[in-house]
Amino acid sequence: MRWNPILRKGIIIDSRSSRLPVIIFFFNLILSAAGIFNLAHLTMDARETATIRYESIIQLYSLISTMEFMMLLVITPALTAPAICSEREGQMLDLLQTTSLGNGRIVAGKLESAVIEMMALLVSALPVQSLVFIFGGATALDLLLPLIAFFVAILFIGGMGIFSSAICRRTVAANVVSYILTVFMTGGTWLIAHFARWISARAADGEAVGTAGGWLYGLLFNPAVTYMCVIDRQAGDMTDELTSLIGYVPKNPITEHWIPVSLLLQLIAAACFIAGAVRIIAPGSGYFTGKD
Questions:
Q1: Is the overall model pTM greater than 0.70, yes or no?
Q2: How far is residue 247's CA from residue 234's CA, in Å, rounded to a whole number?
Q3: In whole angstroms, what is the distance from residue 178 CA to residue 190 CA?
Q4: Which of 9, 172, 174 is nearest to 96 (CA)?
Q5: Has UniProt tagged this entry with the keyword Ribosomal protein (predicted)?
Q6: Three-state SS string across the chain, please?
């Protein structure tokens, strides 16, 4: 098996740099502080009442996982957005394209390097997430399901970051575009669905529950909604989570299998972003003309 030279270079740089250890340290420091504080509050409450509220354990698990997901949304664009345009700024992209790597391996190597960094963060946080095992009520499968959602979200957001890096000449512009896309896919799609629900409720004069209509299915591409459905599925009913987000949810094969359908569509969208990046950086694409 031949390693992608771009990936190998990224691993070597990360192993020699203090950036990744520092990110891992502060990433876990924030999670640990939140987890230990919540656990201490749970213990003090148990001493005072002589009872253990197991719903608090679910809240602890949800808190740690949610903070982890939020930091993932912030860190992933920052790792992937400079991937291509930084090589272009250093006038190294044209040189890379003269090698036998090919545009696909260049883009794949950049994305794989960022994904490995993010997975290192997620694996390093497993001991913090394991705090829920102190009182029981959670299994290893409960930790695995959010990790799958995290991994797909990393690929999806990372794909948008790579695409942003391919279409922008400068790193700053790529970062801005990447974060705009991330905010739109996580917050913008929800606002559109919520607005459609509000319009529907207004049209019914408050006599019926508002519905987002077709805009509901735009949330299939929202990694935050997918994550919340995963957490809510473990704690209760996923449909309740969707209803609380956008109102009436029709019963059909898509809504009944929301999580797998959403994960699949996000993987397809990530593949489209990656393919778009490969096509854009191709020397004959004509996307960039003139001098940088």
A1: yes
A2: 21
A3: 18
A4: 9
A5: no
A6: CCCCHHHHHHHHHHHHCCHHHHHHHHHHHHHHHHHHHHHHHHHHHHHHHCCCCHHHHHHHHHHHHHHHHHHHHHHHHHHHCHHHHHHHHCCCHHHHHCCCCCHHHHHHHHHHHHHHHHHHHHHHCHHHHHHHHHCCCCCHHHHHHHHHHHHHHHHHHHHHHHHHHHHCCCHHHHHHHHHHHHHHHHHHHHHHHHHHHHHHHHHCCCCCCCECHHHHHHHHHCHHHHHHHHHHHHHCCHHHHHHHHHEECCCCHHHHCHHHHHHHHHHHHHHHHHHHHHHHHCCCCCCCCCCC
Residue 5: count other Cβ atoms within 10 Å of its Cβ.
Answer: 15
What is the pLDDT, as a whole number, of residue 49? Answer: 74
Instruction: Determine the straight-line distance between the first and last CA of the chain, rounded to whole angstroms.
Output: 37
- The pLDDT of residue 237 is above 60: no
Q: Enter the tokens of residue 205.
A: 């004069």
207 pLDDT higher than 60:
no
